[in-house]
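Predict structure. Chain length: 241.
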Amino acid sequence: MEIDLASKHMPGSTRIFLADGDALNLSTQRMLQILDYIKGKFPNLERISCYAMPKNILEKSTDDLKKLYDAGLTMFYIGIETGSDIILKKITKGATSQTIIKACQKAKDSGYTISCMVILGLGGKTYSKQHIEDTAKILSVTSPHYVGALTLHLDKGIREEFLTKFKEPFLTIDDADALDELESLVSKIEPVTPVVFRANHGSNAYPIGGTFPQERQQMLEKISYLREHPELCRPVGFRAF
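Prediction complete.
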């Protein structure tokens, strides 16, 4: 019904995202059924994408992933969040740095474009250094086609749950700390293939972007400029996660 409704009102759509949770959790047969139906409804379709948790990528066989790719699902959005196993455990991500690396490689080997998200401030002040160092390592090894850096924002609905899971006092970073983390991350990422990097999500105080490795220096120079001009910070009331 939703596909029919969308095709009626936006028949010329070229890109479709399977929302809202991880659609890859569905059986391969059900996914193939959905993908086939979508392709029959959108004649100008260029790309279908969805979220993909590392465990769901690993639970799909290589054959299943290739079947889904051939059926039109060609891009995964993978929430890495952090490369630190300590923080991954604290936030109950259900993954380790090694399973994330394996999942990303499996997806790339099957032909998928992958866009990965990481979250500045996820370790708070206590684990800031480890968070960035380990995240840079995992991004360097996986070398996603795209990386998006967001900034942690704890809404009322999840704040207590997050703090309870963290199991120790959580010291939130401020905007200056976030800029420091961003600078450290940009300076440490050493991808084996080009990576399009964006830190322009609505949750970020300062937007930057570029492509590794060729635009690293330009990004670092912009970060230095932003540090000298805090008035360019996005107002808190205009940030959204």
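Summary: Strands lie at 15-18, 47-51, 73-81, 113-120, 146-151, 195-199, 208-212.
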